[in-house]
Amino acid sequence: MTTTVVVTGLGIAAPNGLGTQDYWAATRTGKNGIGRVTRFDPSSYPSTLAGEVPGFVAADVLPSRLLPQTDHMTRMALVAAEWALADAGIDPEELPEYDMGVVTASSSGGFEFGQGELEKLWSQGSQYVSAYQSFAWFYAVNSGQISIRNGLKGPSGVIVSDEAGGLDAVAHGRRLIRKGTPMIVSGGVDASICPWGWVAQMAGDRLSTSDEPTRAYLPFDADAAGYVPGEGGAILIMESAESACERGAKIYGEIAGYGSTFDPRPGSDREPALRKAIELALADAGTAPEDVDVVFADAAGVPELDRVEADAISAVFGVRGVPVTAPKTMTGRLYSGAAPLDVATALLAIEEGLIPPTVHINPDEEYGLDLVLNQSRTAQVRTALVLARGYGGFNSAVVVRAVD
Amino acid sequence: MSTSEFTLDDLRRILQEGAGVDEGVDLDGDILDEPFEVLGYESLALLETGSRIEREYGIVLDEDLLTDADTPRALIEAVNQQFGADEPAAA
Question: Which InterPro entries has this protein been placed in (chain A) (predicted)?
């Protein structure tokens, strides 16, 4: 029989709440985390809004040894990992070192750190560039630093497929546990709110240029005109159900199914592949569409992409056939951190029996979605579907399920 | 910068600025003969430290020197020898 893989620990750093408690208290009540950028002066850029994580002071929570060698995203990932391990009741020092690996997602690496070193390169010269630039910018750096700090030498790596990567990393964690590694640290934490990261994101041509925090990121709204980027994400502790039961650990839920597809080439008349990803995930979980209690949408905020997603959901579940929500309307899109945060949110929704809301939007009825709007909806949540898409054609879907 | 001697305090300051200090390590303690590894500094931290010494004091350190000097005492001696080697040229 295939090993059941469960989540036993959460560590969250989100624009509307730092730490699982603050995040969930904010999210269940629809608290907005989007505002004007403060990490740099955005006034000369067309896009000025972001979801920034409030109250994170790295020097208060990490040793000074780690500060000269880490980007902002890595610092948040390290702290989120520490919280997730503590939440799971795991002391890494007590584990055999090869019993736990680290597989996180990344989308762009440590841009803020890299920008600082590039500035030194052109203003002062190459001998002023930090030796730590060699890895501080790198995609795999969050996995590496979490591994080193906690002495986790099990199979590790990074998945880079934009926002879909957040689910792909969780799926790879599940794969490694099924191959015999007892525990995996997974998820993703991202941040590129610095001028260099900003222009790179602008180049994708999907950033909202609105300066009104409540009118800038409007997926499934007739006024949708791009998205607001954010920083943060979630780190998840995954292990086999057997390991969790042996330890007497609290189980949030099971990573029950996964599907991933790639879109046809642009201009093709073939159907976009998101529907197929959903069907694969449901089949993998052995779940029928009618058993799904809520869908956490990718919610691109770009009309064509919203249309593709709404069509895929309706094709599988029927028009208005399943509650759909996008709590990321409170945080902006967190790149590789977005889907792990949605997985964590789905697990918290299962725990409380409550679907957190989609905020700020006035839904276009044409999409045919049963969106949970403005206020949480009380509901028994046993099974949730999380969707994530990455720039360039990545589609991924994960089924999260309550464990009896 | 003209200076006659590279001291333990100079090294402490540069380590602190370039690589920080690990949990449970007291840089102000008696560290002269503690291996860098025990103090929490791996090869990259020493590369960064060497690079900061070079640009602050205007000297060039041999790469082997940085990998061979495994304690603060050894590194300080090597830097001071370099000062001696550079002096005639500077004068």
Answer: Beta-ketoacyl_synthase, Ketoacyl_synth_C, Ketoacyl_synth_N, PKS_Beta-ketoAc_synthase_dom, Thiolase-like
Predicted confidence at residue B90, as pLDDT, reads 44
Domain boundaries, chain A: 5-247, 257-401
* Domain, as residue range, for B33: 8-90
pLDDT tens track for A4-35: 999 999 999 999 999 999 999 999 999 999 99
Q: In CATH, what is the architecture of A257-401?
A: 3-Layer(aba) Sandwich (3.40)
Q: For A113-160, what is each residue's pLDDT tens digit?
A: 999 999 999 999 999 999 999 999 999 999 999 999 999 999 999 999
B54 touches chain A (CB under 8 A): yes
Asked if the A5-247 domain carries CATH number 1.10.3720.10, the reply is: no
Instruction: Please judge whether B44 and A64 are an interchain contact, meaning their C-beta atoms are less than 8 angstroms apart.
Output: no
Bridge partners, residue A185, by sequence? A102, A237
CB A247 within 8 A of CB A182: no
Taking an 8 Å cut-off on Cβ atoms, the answer to whether B51 and A131 are in contact is yes
Chain B environment of A60 (Cβ under 8 Å):
none
In a domain, B3, yes or no: no
Q: Which residue has the tokens 């799971």?
A: A88
**Angstrom distance (rounded) from CA A198 to CA A208:** 12
Residues 6+ apart with CB under 8 A from A303: A224
Euclidean distance between CA atoms A190 and A110, whole angstroms: 8
Would you give the distance in Å from CA A369 to the centre of its chain?
A: 22
Mean pLDDT of chain A: 97
Across the interface, whether the CB atoms of B20 and A131 are under 8 A apart is answered no
What are φ and ψ of residue A337, in 5° steps?
Answer: -85, -15
What is d(CA A163, CA A152) in angstroms, rounded to the nearest whole number? Answer: 25
Taking an 8 Å cut-off on Cβ atoms, the answer to whether B19 and A134 are in contact is no
Q: Is the ipTM of this complex over 0.85?
A: yes
Q: Point out which residues pair with A8 in neighbouring strands.
A: none
pLDDT band of B65, cuts 50, 70, 90: confident
Residue A226 near residue A359 (C-beta atoms within 8 A) = no
pLDDT tens sequence across B10-59: 999 999 999 999 989 999 999 999 999 999 999 999 999 999 999 999 99
